[in-house]
Amino acid sequence: MKPGLKVGLIGAGTMGSAHAEAYRVLDNAELVAVSDLIYERAQAIAAKTGAEIKTADQIFADSSIDVVDVCLPTYLHRDFVVAAAQAGKHVFCEKPMARSLQEAEEMKTACEKAGVKLGIGHVVRFFPEYIRAYDQVKNGKVGKVAMVRCTRGGFPLPTAWQDWYANYALSGGLVLDMIIHDFDYLRWLLGPVERVFAKGTRGRDYNRLEYALVSLKFRSGTIAHVEGSWVSSGGFHTRFEIAGSQGLIDYDSRKANPITLTVNKKDGTPGVPVPASAWAENPYTTEIRNFINVLDGKDGKIVDGNEGYESLKIALAALESIETGKPVNL
Amino acid sequence: MKVGMISFAHLHAESYASALMQMPEVEFSGIYDEDQSRARKWAERFGVKQFATLKDLLDSDIEAVIICSTNADHCRYTVAAAEAKKHVLVEKPIATTIQDANKMIETCKNNGVKLQIAFPVRYLPSVLEAKRIVDSGQLGRILAIKATNHGSMPGGWFVEKELAGGGAVIDHTVHVIDLIRWMLELEVKEVYAEYDRLIHDIPTEDCGLLTMELTNNVFATLDTSWNRPSAYPTWGDVTMTIIGTTGVLELDGFAQKYDLYNNEIKKAQWEYWGGDMDYFLVRDFLLACKNNLPVKVSGEDGLKTLEVALAAYKAGKDHQPVKTEDIK
């Protein structure tokens, strides 16, 4: 057994696996339990980490467990986070915090009442390119920020358990599930949002893909444009452009791949070039390391429930604007 | 064919003049400019006559004029040229008010002369290729468009509302709206906009973001900001991402470039080596005049794009979407 905090993971899907890997490499935390409705998924993580397969209730009841990590579909966050808090566990919860502000409020209250920490998985704040840009903006490298453009996506609508991403009532679609990353980053960088206007494909013509464009006006004066795309266009990529009075930062993940591998097929026909990144540390590990360090009394950073709540507000405002065709004032 | 130029207030005049000089079948007769010293400078540069008055130019045997005055002066020069039976190629935007634009269209029609608006981007080889792809149907039904027309802050009369009609929004709305209307055959129904003066100490806005509802249930955004810093490797961009049900087209109009690093310039520079859109624009206009064919970009096309820019100003002021049909 490793020294440090004992963690129980609920949800062994894509994000659960990324978090499990983080706990595996950390010195001051250990994944001791994993739970998933799909037994094989829990098994895969258990095999890699040595965690025991348990039910969520068993995890809540286990007094040796300090932290519960919730990697479930959005609409289940409230129930599991509240239960974990009531069991006296610190909680790490994947983004978006919840499907509604009411649910998010309940999560915040439950954690405050129980005196436990709540961290929300706004992992973009732990990506090195986004951190570097944040630091440079704060150091005045672009002057006063005027106009920001963000892009996220380029892959088809994700398919997961019960196809829940495709259910708008459960997932909120790409605006709530994916570009909330950019809303959160921009709010971190630029402060509060004053006004939101957005357009999206939802309810228009075609439901096999989703695409949205969001216009944000910040109290600081800055205007931002956020593009979210669950449309195939060369695979997942992100972009940001931060233009200010003294300069401009321009980032495109497609131009920042240190590796491109092309392997010819066995019959000698040309292969397809596959670009790839390479991390000093996986940003999901950085995120979890920061959260665990805070619990462990070390230096670290938590995107807490209040922050998760504020970013959720922007995403829900964008959804409201898409529905009504009107701007939403925050 | 003899062609004259009215005003070199707009920097594109130099490029159109160069285009005229490259056409052996065209005679560039000369320049009239209210600013006599500016007229002299360019007349000397191109080795052409400087006309002392507008009347002198319009009384000469030219068949067509190219007008590169301030936006507010487009109407008065176009009307004068049309009444003198000269065909008109006028810089964009067509005018600063709907009334002026209508007057220009009417006067040209009544005098039987052609009126073309200078939307050279239609003539970029990359844009023509994009249109070919759109027309092929490979994208399926069009769902959304994301576009930018960024630039550097031009200064001068471009930042005076009375002369330009506004700032970054009117300057950089019209090109892409023209592309959307022409490439995709869509009209803008409703416009929402955020714009502000956020970078430069100028009287007009320098940043703008339009969010639009188009016909056929399509939506679009367009970033019109003059936000390329002086350290940026080029003047700006024209980009469009077109989302269709079966494909996505990403157009970067000026991507045909290489990077230049020069110790004296102290910054990287993008050297564009793609086709010269201004040359193709001027040649196409003069061919339409010579052969009495319809021009590719009509006054009505110019008017439609102006409506969108004016709707954006109203929407940005009221923080509410504005219907283009309500722009009078």
Tell me what you see in this structure.
The complex is a heterodimer of chains A (330) and B (328). With 330 residues, chain A is of the alpha/beta class. Chain A folds into two domains: 5-121, NAD(P)-binding Rossmann-like Domain (Rossmann fold), CATH 3.40.50.720; 125-278 and 304-329, 2-Layer Sandwich (Dihydrodipicolinate Reductase, domain 2). Chain A contains eleven helices and 15 strands. Chain A has a seven-stranded mixed sheet. A six-stranded parallel sheet of chain A has the order 3-2-1-4-5-6, sandwiched between helices. A two-stranded antiparallel ribbon of chain A has the order 13-14. Chain A is globular. Chain A starts with a strand and ends with a strand. Chain B is of the alpha/beta class. Chain B has two domains: 2-113, Rossmann fold (3-Layer(aba) Sandwich); 122-276 and 306-326, Dihydrodipicolinate Reductase, domain 2 (2-Layer Sandwich). Chain B is 36% helix and 24% strand. Chain B has ten helices and 15 strands. Chain B has helices spanning 12-21, 36-46, 54-59, 74-83, 98-110, 125-136, 161-164, 168-184, 277-290, 299-318; strands spanning 2-6, 27-32, 49-50, 64-67, 87-91, 115-118, 142-148, 188-196, 207-214, 219-223, 239-244, 248-252, 257-261, 268-272, 322-323. Chain B has a seven-stranded mixed sheet. Chain B has a six-stranded parallel sheet with strand order 3-2-1-4-5-6, with helices on both faces. Chain B has a two-stranded antiparallel sheet with strand order 13-14. In chain B, helix 2 links the parallel strand 2 (27-32) and strand 3. In chain B, helix 1 packs across helix 9 (277-290) and helix 4 (74-83) packs parallel to helix 5. Chain B is globular and about 55 Å long. The model of chain B has no long low-confidence stretch (mean pLDDT 97). Chain A binds chain B through residues 142-144, 146-147, 149, 195, 197-201, 204-206, 208-209, 211, 213, 215, 217, 221-223, 225, 227, 229, 231-233, 243-248, 325-327, and chain B through 141, 143-144, 146, 148, 190, 192, 194-196, 198-200, 206-207, 209, 211, 213, 217, 219-221, 223, 225, 227-229, 231-232, 241, 243, 245, 248, 250, 319-321.
